[in-house]
């Protein structure tokens, strides 16, 4: 059994193994890696704050003062994507046999087929559940990305298919169609689901003027079918369906 010194080393090794075996197969023409926007932070490398925008040119600095769990997650995802794109993502790379797409996905909401609560939706409705631990994970995404990039699970599925079927798509792509603050999410729940009586503390948060500047997927012709309202409403619907919300 292979032994690794860290989570980061294990994740990078896993990505390298997948890409290497795709090339060895001789039949795989495109590798679509499901990444995360946590690897695409608009934070400046010198620690002086945020850029004015977030897009595919952004990459999360590795020296951020995060909790151990969040740091392992952010660093491992960032390093894995760097390895994948630098080693294998150069115009069909050295072998000439493999295209690489890294889909950096936002926080996923919406109604899922699962019979249990998905981790991402649990984070997204943390204010409704008054779950402070999960809300810290929501704030982690907000602090890394400036605001919270959101995407509906159905659009995530469609985007994977779209990237697989479109031969011109390669490289890094951010996948989200809403970019909002945690306070904006709280306000939506308070206005549309007053029965949950969200606490005032969730109305406290940063108001950062950072723009979502990623248009790469849309420029290729992809159409998002679910807006912010649908993402949040379907998340509540899902939680109610599986009995995670009593009202």
UniProtKB/TrEMBL annotation:
Domain of life, per lineage: Eukaryota
Keywords assigned by UniProt, alphabetized: NADP, Oxidoreductase
The keyword ATP-binding belongs to this UniProt entry's keyword annotation: no
Keyword field contains Oxidoreductase: yes
Any GO molecular function: oxidoreductase activity, acting on the CH-OH group of donors, NAD or NADP as acceptor
PANTHER family tied to this protein: DIHYDROFLAVONOL-4-REDUCTASE-LIKE PROTEIN, NAD DEPENDENT EPIMERASE/DEHYDRATASE
Name recorded for this polypeptide: Anthocyanidin reductase
